Amino acid sequence: xxxxxxxxxxxxxxxxxxxxxxxxxxxxxxxxxxxxxxxxxxxxxxxxxxxxxxxxxxxxxxxxxxxxxxxxxxxxxxxxxxxxxxxxxxxxxxxxxxxxxxxxxxxxxxxxxxxxxxxxxxxxxxxxxxxxxxxxxxxxxxxxxxxxxxxxxxxxxxxxxxxxxxxxxxxxxx
Length: 174
Hints:
There is one protein chain. This protein has a five-stranded mixed β-sheet, sandwiched between helices. By secondary structure, the chain is of the alpha/beta class. Strand 1, helix 3 and strand 2 form a beta-alpha-beta unit. It contains five helices and five strands, in the order ααβαβαβαββ. Helix 2 crosses helix 3. The chain has two domains: 29 residues; 125 residues.
């Protein structure tokens, strides 16, 4: 039976098509011209922003650091940061300083005792980075990299030149 001849069916189909097109147009307009302001580091994309710049800075610091510390590597506190840094700093090795075994231990190895490197930590991981610095003989902080969008600071990357990795801290036995 041909339902298209019924007026309600045609009106419902036209309304649905118009509503769908209007919704699509609105979504594209919001993507092209974002109107939701986010205060500073509360931007929902802040964990993903700035990694190309952070990797470029880390690569340069590593090259400078390698003059006095041969075979320096890039270091991060955990695997999720390693994936971001490794993508933009490729083919340089990125090693993870946590005790969890992950794909980066297979790809680039685990930091061995005596390892020198540039520890990269965004501001949300700064407390963890301070704790990790105790695993090295010495760490020196260098100028942080501030990433801003629309005049607001979104994320700050902190860099530490670290020498002589001693391994993960011992966990007290019970």
